[in-house]
Design goal:
Blueprint lengths: L2 H6 L3 H12 L29 E2 L27 H5 L2 H4 L4 H20 L5 E7 L3 E6 L16 H7 L22 H7 L1 E10 L2 E8 L2 E11 L4 E8 L11 H14 L4 E6 L6 E5 L5 H8 L11 E7 L2 E9 L6 E6 L2 E2 L5 H20 L12 H4 L3 E8 L16 H21 L1 H34 L20 E6 L1 H10 L5 E6 L11 H5 L5 H7 L16 E5 L4 H17 L1 H5 L3 E4 L4 E5 L2 E5 L2 H11 L5 E4 L8 H9 L6 E3 L5 H12 L3 H11 L8
Parallel strand pairs: 2-8, 12-14, 15-16, 15-17, 17-18
Antiparallel strand pairs: 1-22, 2-3, 3-7, 4-5, 4-7, 5-6, 8-9, 10-11, 11-14, 12-13, 18-22, 19-20, 19-21
């Protein structure tokens, strides 16, 4: 479709339809690869490069012409595990790679709960051929006797009835992550098949299920000296688009589990490759080792992490902190081994206590004068690596995916523990205390400088007619949902993009030269950077703690750079900036990377565009051309405006990679590795991964 034809249809409703046409074509899209596929997953020393995912919104279409009556027969009653198969997202979040791996996590979490109860210290996770997963532990084994209420074996109840488990009372588990009792039954419902072998009371028992239904009832299969449960299952391909498990992603999650539970040993094995890969995860240092691991690519300010642990009633609070010379905080919280990525009362209590203790100590010893303001929370957390882990008997999480802790009493408990223990530590270790407070005071001065720069930016936005950057070619549409901005490398490519764009909804912001590496710079330098200021002003949503998605002027922020080393560097610098200072932009899926072709293959009046050398060969094969002419694009500036529109900007023909962040901790580590001060880890990464590098995007 020509630009003119497309433009004639771009009222608000028709543009929404155009977006669907461009993104609901899976055959035209590259394989999705996540930016936060964890770098820690290769090994403790080798890291996987952060990559990207594709523009794949899949907006629903609604039939507004349905005039049929709403009657009693329209009410459906889903029985047993039918509801799980009908709406899996309600139980595991989604059916993407994240949801697929959540199945494994649910079963492993049950074994970890056995460990928390003191009945298990070894867990084995094996990925077999065909992406079959086997999880075994040396716990007490799921009970196999007849359930007094249900009248069937208890192990069958656990796997076929929602909200059935040992976590609701009775004393079997004083601390558990499996709060809702739906883990095993949900995994069963979403599996093509599942087999459970229980070793208990000197006997071995087996039961088999298919898609949540009992296929082979429980039966005794022999004698056994062992105890524990072995669960084997295969995810249902009719539920999940892909059942290909990511060993690296699993290694990340279960390394984290081993850090949080120093008494257990996790064996993670991948038998899909030859020879099989096995990782043994056991850390006697627990969360102290975890913090050291987080800071391994940074320069620490004190050698030994500060460790705090105390029991308050039935709640156990554990904390490890260590400062480094970076300008970002890396604070992660857990409750009953569950990563509370949205924080909660335990994290609030920690932050409040940390700020209070450091301010009190600094004033007591004159490092903050009577006339000076207190340090703020962001000051005392700059360069902080911290793990806070609590274990409690009755956690209140938000939903089955458990991302935020809500127990109100936990805030006070954590505040009390941290205040008492940390204040005592600072008194007993004056050199470390001085180093930490000097770091915090330096952060405070930088924050004040950033505040002044921010106020200046706000005044420009509010009162000056030229608040938008001068080089921005804005679009006509004012609804952010319909607008997209291309951040283009170089004035030459920017000129082609301006001429080739659809000005109704596409804005162009050209950048020139290398920009600031924000990984090595404080926020005050970011505000004053001449190459980043235009980006901040154009997006219009602020920066850092002031960032507000509701003020975002474009819902597609597209990085368009050359397919060469310099272009890759610019993309990385921009992604680092977005991650460190505009993180909600990445979390919300608003950031994209344009994928321009590398080649134009043509003969006579016919031409095709190719993204890789393999594409070139495929074009030759399909056209029958033996020696077609081949144009290699060294940069975007070599394309005419029409070519740039046709290949990279037209929603019907372009390819966009959408940047997603599934694991903030993994992304944090990778940016530190690739963009931080330490040269050796970066060199090791390059040497280990150079063999995977390709000339194309």
């Amino acid at each position: 479709m020509s630009k003119e034809g497309l433009n004639n249809r771009l009222d608000k409703q028709s543009y929404k339809e155009e977006k669907r046409l461009s993104i609901d074509q899976p055959d035209d899209l590259d394989q999705m690869i996540n930016i936060a596929d964890d770098p820690r997953a290769l090994s403790d020393d080798d890291f996987q490069e952060e990559i990207i995912t594709i523009d794949n919104d899949h907006n629903d279409r609604f039939d507004t012409t349905n005039r049929s009556l709403y009657s009693e027969s329209d009410i459906q009653v889903l029985e047993g595990l039918e509801a799980v198969r009908k709406r899996p997202g309600m139980y595991i979040g989604d059916t993407s790679m994240r949801g697929l791996h959540h199945l494994v996590y649910e079963i492993v979490a049950n074994s970890v709960d056995e460990a928390l109860a003191g009945r298990c210290d070894k867990i084995r996770i094996v990925i077999k051929q065909g992406n079959i997963v086997e999880i075994s532990d040396n716990g007490s084994g799921i009970p196999v006797g007849i359930h007094p209420k249900m009248g069937i074996p208890t192990v069958e109840v656990v796997h076929t009835v929602l909200h059935a488990g040992g976590k609701f009372g009775g004393g079997a588990y004083s601390v558990s992550g499996g709060l809702h009792g739906v883990g095993a039954s949900v995994v069963n419902a979403l599996s093509e098949w599942m087999e459970v072998v229980v070793n208990r009371n000197g006997k071995a028992y087996r039961i088999r299920f298919e898609r949540g239904l009992t296929k082979e009832p429980l039966k005794e299969i022999g004698e056994s000296d062992a105890t524990g449960t072995i669960t084997t299952f295969k995810a249902d391909q009719t539920i999940f688009p892909s059942v290909e498990l990511d060993f690296n992603m699993m290694l990340t999650r279960y390394r984290e589990m081993a850090f949080l539970n120093k008494e257990i040993t996790l064996h993670l094995i991948d038998e899909r490759v030859t020879p099989a890969v096995e990782k043994v995860l056991h850390y006697e240092g627990g969360i102290v080792s975890f913090v050291e691991y987080l800071n391994k690519h940074k320069q620490v300010l004190h050698k030994m992490p500060v460790y705090v642990a105390a029991k308050n009633g039935d709640c156990f609070v554990e904390l490890a902190i260590q400062y480094n010379d970076s300008y970002v905080e890396s604070v992660y919280s857990y409750a009953n081994n569950i990563a509370t990525i949205e924080g909660g009362t335990h994290l609030t209590g920690f932050k409040t206590a940390l700020t209070r203790v450091i301010n009190d100590y600094a004033r007591k010893y004159g490092q903050i004068k009577a006339t000076e303001k207190n340090l703020q929370g962001e000051d005392v957390r700059e360069g902080l690596g911290a793990i806070i882990s609590i274990k409690l008997p009755e956690p209140q999480f938000e939903g089955q995916t458990k991302t935020k802790l809500g127990n109100s009493e936990i805030r006070g408990i954590v505040e009390t523990v941290v205040t008492e223990k940390l204040a005592a530590y600072l008194e007993e270790n004056p050199p470390v205390a001085k180093t930490i407070i000097d770091k915090c005071l330096s952060a405070s001065r930088a924050r004040e400088a950033a505040r002044k720069a921010r106020e200046m930016t706000r005044r420009k936005n509010a009162f000056e007619s030229n608040a938008l950057p001068g080089k921005l070619a804005d679009c006509q549409e004012k609804n952010p949902e319909l607008c997209e901005i291309f951040i283009v490398e170089g004035d030459s490519a920017g000129g082609s993009a301006k001429n080739g764009r659809e000005r109704k909804y596409q804005a162009i912001l050209p950048l020139w030269g290398k920009m600031l590496n924000v990984e090595k710079a404080r926020i005050d330098r970011v505000y004053g950077n001449e190459k980043l200021q235009p980006v901040i002003l154009a997006l219009g949503a602020g920066i850092g703690s002031d960032f507000d998605l509701h003020r975002l002027r474009y819902h597609k922020v597209i990085i368009m750079a050359d397919a060469d080393v310099d272009g890759a560097h610019i993309r990385t610098l921009l992604l680092t900036f977005f991650f460190r200072h505009l993180q909600p932009l990445v979390e919300g899926g608003y950031v994209y990377i344009a994928c321009p072709p590398l080649f134009r293959v043509y003969e006579g009046n016919k031409s095709f565009y190719a993204y890789t050398e393999d594409d070139v060969e495929q074009i030759k094969e399909e056209t029958g051309w033996k020696e077609p002419k081949l144009q290699r694009y060294k940069g975007l500036g070599e394309m005419s405006a029409e070519q740039l529109w046709e290949t990279t900007m037209n929603p019907e023909t372009r390819k966009l990679l959408r940047v997603e962040m599934q694991d903030a901790q993994a992304a944090d580590e990778t940016f530190s590795l690739l963009m931080g001060e330490k040269v050796e880890p970066r060199r090791d990464f390059i040497q280990s991964n150079a063999k995977y590098a390709q000339m194309d995007i």
